[in-house]
Structure formats: structure tokens, C-alpha cells
Design a protein that fits this description.
By secondary structure, the protein is α+β, with helices and mostly antiparallel strands. The chain has 3 domains: 106 residues, Butyryl-Coa Dehydrogenase, subunit A, domain 1 (Orthogonal Bundle); 108 residues, Butyryl-CoA Dehydrogenase, subunit A, domain 2 (Beta Barrel), CATH 2.40.110; 145 residues, Butyryl-CoA Dehydrogenase, subunit A, domain 3 (Up-down Bundle), CATH 1.20.140. It has 12 helices and 10 strands. The strands form 3 sheets. The chain has a 4-stranded mixed sheet. Strands 2-3-7-6 form a 4-stranded antiparallel sheet, with no helix packed on it. It starts with 9 loop residues before the first helix and ends in a 6-residue tail after the last helix. Bound molecules: flavin-adenine dinucleotide. Flavin-adenine dinucleotide binds next to strand 1, strand 3 and helix 12.
């Protein structure tokens, strides 16, 4: 049964089915066969809060198996050696992965190259030498990256970054700090943003450059793992750079104009997070529907009470709308439109309705909804984070309002 009146392109459908099958054969069994490792936080994380060596090994296996099967890099541009699929395929595959795997089978995060952790369109902007040195291990899934823009004093307004690259011979020496960097605790490479022209940066007219650096370079330190929601470890890092030497071949994009790479990366993140919200929202509603049909109270299944079924009907309605928005805005991107307003609307709306759906699913399950076993609270945590990351709701609403006020009232 389909609720969508138009067909996705055949190749998008095929890879969506393929990635679903990959998740079922390569991701979910690895979770099932390693329950103890994932359920015991002391085994899941090292003392310093990084994912432990056995977990990192499983992640690498998934990345490499997916690359081998041709899924991992299918949304990477063809000139980089990828499958050249567009943004609608990227959206559809992420939505499928989150819907199929739910929060428990979280290693599906590595079944498809994430825009910041693996090879992505961002690498179109690196030099030939950088491609020669890093592309092969990233494409094979052997190595991974991170994207370091935010700093303790610069979040929504990333132009406030203080990390500086000061001239040193034909290159630069970088000093500064970054925080909240996803995959930072375990990444092999990092795209970092630093001020290269202080005057232009102060005038907010460029002056920021992006550099690709190996994370084991002298002067690059993963200072600590940032822990969220009471977990004893995590995926976000605080990074520190001291006299970190970078050279012209490490530039990503043009000197002093690295900010466009930052904005581009963040927009890829918005597609990913919109898909994640709809996928997890759908997973939670289906879980709640199954439960409501079998759980009885006052002589009948709770599904027969409108107080139970109507909130699920509302959640499904909202998720359907968010799903259509995701397919539409990514289609606009594939057609070459900037779709800034539409993608902002999609992300704001998808996260809100995903969160509401999960909250309603928790309520339908009663006390069961709060257990670790079901993972609904875990799913809620995932989405609560993205009310803030990759453009907070307020910043996205600011963007939408700006576009409307500039006269773009197309809906
Ligand atoms: C889990 C997680 C992962 C992340 N991963 C990365 C990563 O990989 N790489 C990276 O570089 N960064 C990453 N970030 C950082 C993320 O991009 C920032 O958290 C985000 O940009 C918001 O910045 P901030 O947290 O400093 O909040 P602030 O910018 O300090 O904002 C605080 C509050 O003020 C509001 N606000 C700010 N300006 C306005 C305005 N003009 N109008 C109305 N309200 C406003 C915000 O919406 C927010 O509610 C991650 C964050 C999280 C939580």
C-alpha cells in the first residue's frame, strides 16, 4: 500500500529497497548478536567516553560491508567515485533506515555515508592531493571524518568563531577550540573552520577558511567526549588545536571563503535530520498501533478508545505531511533550486511532528513506554537533540521569515 500519489524514480526505489535489505541482513543481526555489548554501557564505552574498540570494529564492518555492496557511497558524486544519487535518494534512504531500524539498531547510522562522517559532496571542494590521500579509505568505509565548525562561543552565529590560522611559511598554524563535534571522538579526518583573514572575518565578509586535517596530526587533540542525557559516553567531542600546521593542499574550497562549505554541509544535515525525524516517528507510531490492538483495559483493547487512537491518527497525519515535505524539498534541490525556505520548513516541521509522535507513542504504552527495552525514550532523545543541532528551530524560523519578508511567499 502506498499513501503517495507519485512514484519515486525507479533507481531511488531500488536503492531504498536495497538499503532496507542491507539493514536487515548486516545491521540488525550485529545488534542482536552483541546485545551485552550494547546494553552494558561499561562495555559500550571506554573509560574516556569514546565508543569501545569492539563497537568501533562493528561500525567499521558495517561501513565496509555497505561500501562493498555499493550502498555506502551511492549519494556521493560520480566524479568522486560514488553512485551520483541525488538528495531525494539521500532523504528516502535515511528515512527508510530509521523507520526500519528504530533507535535500538543505531549502527544503521553507518550503512549510508553520513554527510559529515563519510565521503559526501563536501569532498568535491578538496584539492587533488587531498583526494589522492584520503578518498580511497573514506570511500571503502575504512576511515571516517568529522565536521568542526561550532565553538564554545559560536553556535547559531558561526561567524563568531575564534579559531585562527596564522600564516606560517607557505601554510598556516591553527590554534583554537571546537565543541559538539559529532563523530569527533573516533574520526580519522576533520574538516575544520578557522579565521584566515581577521579583518574580513570581523566585518563578516568572509575571511574564514576550511581545512581538511588528519586527527592524528601534531597539535590536534581530541580533548574530551561531551556526554549528553546522562550517558557515560558519547559521539560528540571537544577538540583543541595548538600550532596545528596546515598547508594549501588541505584547503576545502577557496581560501577565505570556507563559509560556503559550512552552509552547504549544514543543509545536507537538514535533509538527514528531517528524514531521521519522519523515520523514527513512523517507527514509534507503528509500535504504538501494535500495542494498542493487544493491550486491554476496562474489558477491551485500548485501541477502541478514541483517547488512544485519535492522538495516533493525528501523529500519522502530521508525519505524512512531513514526509511529503521531505520528498518535495529534496526534489527541488535535485532540480537545482536552492530551496532554502522549503528545506528549513521541512526540518522545523519534521522534528516537531517526530517528537510529538514519539511522545504520543510513549503515552499509549503507559509505563511500558518509559522502559529502556522499548527505546521510545531513546528515540525522543535523538530528536530532542535536533531541535538544536543543524539549525535550531528559532534559526530556521528566522530563515523562513526572512524569505517571506523578502517576497518569497510561494507555498
Ligand atoms: C548533538 C549535537 C551534535 C552537534 N554536532 C555538531 C557537529 O558535528 N559540528 C558542529 O560544528 N556543530 C555541531 N553541533 C553544534 C550545533 O550546530 C549548535 O548547537 C547549534 O548551531 C546551536 O548553537 P548553540 O548550541 O551554541 O546555541 P546558541 O547559538 O547559543 O543559541 C541558544 C539559543 O538561542 C537561540 N537563538 C540564537 N540566535 C537566535 C536568533 N537570532 N533568534 C532567535 N533565537 C535565537 C537558539 O535557537 C537557542 O535556542 C552539534 C550540536 C548538538 C546538540
Amino acid at each position: 500500500m502506498t499513501a503517495i500519489a507519485f512514484d519515486l524514480p525507479e533507481d531511488v526505489e531500488q536503492i531504498r529497497e536495497g538499503i532496507r535489505a542491507f539493514a536487515r541482513t548486516e545491521v540488525i543481526p550485529r545488534h542482536e548478536n552483541n546485545k551485552e555489548l550494547f546494553e552494558n554501557s561499561r562495555l559500550k564505552y571506554d573509560e574516556d567516553g569514546r565508543l569501545s574498540a569492539p563497537v568501533r570494529q562493528l561500525i567499521k564492518e558495517i561501513r565496509m560491508a555497505s561500501a562493498e555492496a555499493g550502498y555506502y557511497h551511492m549519494c556521493v558524486p560520480e566524479p568522486l567515485g560514488g553512485g551520483g544519487q541525488g538528495m531525494q535518494a539521500y532523504y528516502a534512504c535515511w528515512e527508510e533506515l530509521f523507520h526500519t531500524c528504530g533507535p535500538h539498531n543505531w549502527m544503521m547510522l553507518y550503512a549510508l555515508s553520513h554527510w559529515a562522517f563519510g565521503p559526501s559532496r563536501l569532498l568535491e571542494k578538496v584539492t587533488d592531493r587531498a583526494r589522492d590521500e584520503i578518498l580511497a579509505p573514506l570511500m571503502s568505509g575504512e576511515k571516517s571524518m568529522c565536521f568542526a565548525l561550532s565553538e564554545p562561543g559560536a553556535g547559531s552565529d558561526a561567524t563568531m568563531i575564534k579559531t585562527k590560522a596564522r600564516p606560517d611559511g607557505d601554510g598556516w598554524l591553527v590554534d583554537g577550540r571546537k565543541i559538539w563535534i559529532s563523530n569527533g571522538p573516533i574520526a580519522d579526518y576533520c574538516i575544520l573552520f578557522a579565521i584566515t583573514d581577521p579583518e574580513r572575518a570581523a566585518a563578516k565578509k568572509g575571511g574564514i577558511s576550511a581545512f581538511l586535517v588528519p586527527t592524528d596530526a601534531p597539535g590536534f587533540e581530541m580533548q574530551r567526549v561531551v556526554k549528553l542525557f546522562g550517558h557515560i559516553g558519547g559521539d560528540e567531542a571537544e577538540l583543541r588545536f595548538e600550532d596545528l600546521r596546515v598547508e594549501p593542499w588541505q584547503l576545502v574550497g577557496e581560501l577565505h571563503n570556507g563559509f560556503s562549505a559550512a552552509l552547504y554541509g549544514v543543509s545536507l544535515g537538514r535533509i538527514y535530520n528531517s528524514a531521521r525525524s519522519v523515520g523514527l516517528g513512523r517507527w514509534s507510531v507503528e509500535l504504538a498501533l501494535d500495542y494498542a490492538k493487544t493491550r486491554e483495559a476496562f474489558g477491551k483493547p485500548i485501541a477502541e478508545y478514541q483517547g488512544v487512537s485519535f492522538p495516533l491518527a493525528e501523529a500519522a497525519t502530521e508525519l505524512h505531511a512531513a514526509h511529503l515535505m521531505g520528498l518535495n524539498s529534496t526534489k527541488l534541490l535535485d532540480q537545482g533550486h536552492a530551496a532554502v525556505k522549503e528545506l528549513s520548513m521541512t526540518k522545523v516541521y519534521s522534528v516537531q511532528v517526530g517528537l510529538r509522535a514519539i511522545d504520543r507513542a510513549i503515552q499509549v504504552h503507559g509505563a511500558m513506554g518509559l522502559t529502556n527495552e522499548l527505546g521510545l525514550a531513546e528515540a525522543w532523545q535523538y530528536l530532542r537533540i535536533i531541535n538544536i543541532a543543524d539549525g535550531s528551530n528559532e534559526i530556521l524560523n528566522k530563515t523562513i521569515a526572512q524569505k517571506l519578508l523578502q517576497g518569497d511567499v510561494s507555498l
